[in-house]
Amino acid sequence: MTASSSSSRSGQPWVLGLLGVAVLGFVVWGFWRASQPPAPYFQGQMEAREADIAPKVTARIARVAVTEGQQIQPGDLLVEMDSPEVRAKLAQAEAAKAAAQAVSDKAQHGARPQEVQMARLNWQRAQAGAELAHTSYQRVQSLYDQGLVSAQKRDEAHTQWRANAAQAEAARAQYDMAASGARAEDKAAAAAQVRQVDGVVAEVQAAEAETQLRSPVGGEVAKVLAKEGELSPQGVAVVTVVDLQDQWVVLNVREDQLQRFALKSRFTGQLPALGGHSAEFEVTYLGVLPDFATWRTTRGNQGFDARTFEVRARPAAPIAGARPGMSVVVQP
């Protein structure tokens, strides 16, 4: 046996022992790694500001002017609606306004010139009758003083004069009233009636304008629930508009891991739908979820029950291509 073969046999146990130690160490490290809690991993999703647009009046849908995915601006027409009831109410309100305006004009203008002339002539006639009765009374009084007529005749002439004088005063009052026109209170009441009817007309016109349903916000049409020919109830949304410029991510985080998402803090998330694009987010809202099913025990036999919080964070910069519903992964 040579010296080289002898040394080779003596080195094999050492190599095998070293290999065994290495394998044992790897197995121990694997068990230790498996016993460690997994690294925290959070997954949320993008959300955006949505506006559900509904009509204020019940009407039948005549035409849908937008489609899903269409970009619109504030004031753009969404849906045209047909409401014969609104048109009928508008006609009634306009007729009531015309009647109230006529009454107001009559109160403002007063009596017609012919009516004033008639009142003046009646007063002049009554005045002439009163003067004639006074002259007759003076004659009867002179005869009475001479003893030619009785006191009864004198009293009758006096009464006739007083009655004619009262009629003349009444005719003068009628003439003055016709000449001066309506009372200030009547004019004010007529003008107030016109303003009241103007309010009714404005209300019906506002309802008519609502039959042309326009978007109060700009963005992208996410849903179109309206269909031509359907009866759309009041207050039921027919179009949903989403503002893609106002997006945020929502995460559900257990409270023992919440320190990582302090208010105003920033973190980095990845969007798998955009090829793993990374974006920085800033926490803007923290709120506990109201569902008690979100409670979790921290340890099986003791400890406290951890609740789940909702975390909202907005992108530090706009994310090109981001849309509501896309997942956001936050890794350690």
Can you describe this structure?
By secondary structure, the protein is α+β, with helices and mostly antiparallel strands. The protein folds into three domains: 42-48 and 245-330, Elongation Factor Tu (Ef-tu), domain 3; 50-82 and 210-239, RNA polymerase II/Efflux pump adaptor protein, barrel-sandwich hybrid domain (OB fold (Dihydrolipoamide Acetyltransferase, E2P)), CATH 2.40.50; 94-202. 45% of the residues lie in helices and 26% in strands. The protein is built from five helices and 14 strands. It has helices at 3-35, 84-109, 113-145, 151-180, 184-209; strands at 42-53, 59-64, 71-72, 77-82, 212-214, 219-224, 231-232, 239-254, 266-271, 277-288, 296-297, 305-306, 308-315, 327-330. Strands 1, 3, 6, 8, 9, 10, 13 and 14 form an eight-stranded antiparallel β-sheet that branches. The chain has a four-stranded antiparallel β-sheet with strand order 5-4-2-7, with no helix packed on it. It has a two-stranded antiparallel ribbon with strand order 11-12. Strand 11 (296-297) and strand 12 (305-306) form a beta hairpin. The longest helix has 33 residues, at 3-35. It starts with a helix and ends with a strand. Residues 297-301 have low confidence and may be disordered.
